[in-house]
Amino acid sequence: MGHGGGGAMSAELVEHIFLPAFGGRTAAALGDSAALSVGGARLAFSTDSFVVRPLFFPGGSIGDLAVNGTVNDLAMSGARAAYLSCGFILEEGVETALLGRVAQALGEAARAAGAEVVTGDTKVVESGHGDGVYINTSGIGLIPPGVDIRPQRAAPGDVVIVSGEIGLHGVAIMSVREGLEFGVEVRSDCAALGGLVEAMLAVTPDLHVLRDPTRGGLAASLNEIASAAGVGVLIQERAVPVPEQVANACAILGLDPMYVANEGKLVAFVPREHAEAVLAAMRAHPLGARAAVIGECVPDHPGMVVARTAFGGTRVVDLPLGEQLPRIC
Amino acid sequence: MGHGGGGAMSAELVEHIFLPAFGGRTAAALGDSAALSVGGARLAFSTDSFVVRPLFFPGGSIGDLAVNGTVNDLAMSGARAAYLSCGFILEEGVETALLGRVAQALGEAARAAGAEVVTGDTKVVESGHGDGVYINTSGIGLIPPGVDIRPQRAAPGDVVIVSGEIGLHGVAIMSVREGLEFGVEVRSDCAALGGLVEAMLAVTPDLHVLRDPTRGGLAASLNEIASAAGVGVLIQERAVPVPEQVANACAILGLDPMYVANEGKLVAFVPREHAEAVLAAMRAHPLGARAAVIGECVPDHPGMVVARTAFGGTRVVDLPLGEQLPRIC
């Protein structure tokens, strides 16, 4: 299960099995999406499969996730999603009414994100060989001129900004799946981030890195960036916005919010001279209202993420091995 | 299971569930791929999930299928596949050595087709909730200027050409899965058709329709074209190239070769004035050596496919309800 968790074990699979087999360009495409040149246009292209359980959860469904996950991967290279594909793998016997609700949610999420579902495929496997509904979406978006956003561009001096409170998606899934209650219902933050990224790009096309911290949480994203760019990342633990119900749930379950998945948040590495204006633009957008500076990119400890704790000490924030909770997306 | 078979039940699912949910553009994209305009370029975009059992079979594997299936969908709009995405859904416990062999086959098939795998994703589901390896691929290709190939363009007078012998993939899967033997080993015809289509387009950009008869076989493809264009299709049954081992297997199993899946064949609707030259170009290509004219597009019986039998009678070739054999791709 760890190999699907977006952490060190996933990276190992990619490095030792997929890259040698696929070769060449794949190696350059370790960001959330690949940047391509096709017929003179600069495109972002991304794919994601969704196997979340349960199919519906507070704040969303597999249909919402399938759209927002791919839309957000494209947004992380500065592209606004234009076209989506959609492949269903259905388990024999799944109710057509349930499938209809999933398709409806998917269609609505696509319309909300301004993307069109233009091609699709359906396969059916025997009862007991699937799990209701799996969905793959792939997406194509246009990268605006002058925009070059990728993990390798993180540079010492960059300000690290997170777009809002972390950990909501993971805790929402966990609470509904395990039947846990934490006082108030925790709702997934599942959302499409294309509009927020556009607002940030309106300030400057020179954003260095964007990443949506899904599987493996903020810790996995920061580690991937530090490692890709060969820079250090220093986080002020107190500055990371953790909602009370996420903090409570994590305390009870022995989890670290830094490792819990999000589905409607991004982390940005922004050149210092633009940081204040970008932060203001984010806060003016509904999906960035709680945006906060959480740290900076440093020349020290390249490849490592270090957090300054509330007590003044420091700790290393490791790349997680797997995901704390399987099948959250 | 029938809803995944590419026949009437699949069409029903698309018409009653997916189209109403996704709306707009999806409706126009009922070909094998969608034709899009992005940043001034004309792109074909297609997706397919692969759930074939067994993962390896005579003549190919799920890795080959995953590449060739999507490459061929793009080729059916005249596009040469440029970029592929690849999403794996793995079952917990699948051997990494097996996964490595699948990835290797996929990589080799992509290189053979001249396409690059540029982005990917891996999810893992618990043991008993998947089936070893499922793969989704999506692909992007550039449509050459002046090319407009789609089912709606079939017109009375068009000559119907098939690129070679039919039924090999379906019979190969069936024989290995069911442990049947038909004298000689039947190998899948799984192949990438981009090069063959380029050779045809070199004769004329004005090909009307191309289709790869996978699930539901030649019968399903011809019915979809007849229905999309509102034309009749008249086939000379004797002209359809059916290899002896496919004919034998079908006779034993009570199947009709017209309904058996192919993975390396195409059917073309070509304006009469170009038919001879296109056929010659096909025969000069290794994947079209056994190409044959099998019939014509007629103004009679719109939406219907009729076959003239070897005995001089005629019979209606219906759209199959589902697939004769589940999970062949």
Automatic annotation (TrEMBL), chains A, B:
Gene3D superfamilies according to UniProt: PurM-like C-terminal domain, PurM-like, N-terminal domain
InterPro entries xrefs: HypE, PurM-like_C_dom, PurM-like_C_sf, PurM-like_N, PurM-like_N_sf
Every PurM-like C-terminal domain range: 156-301
PurM-like N-terminal domain residues: 32-143
Pfam families: AIRS, AIRS_C
Family to which the UniProt record says this protein belongs: Belongs to the HypE family.
Protein name: Hydrogenase expression/formation protein HypE
Organism: Streptomyces amakusaensis
Classification lineage: Bacteria, Bacillati, Actinomycetota, Actinomycetes, Kitasatosporales
Gene expressing this chain: hypE
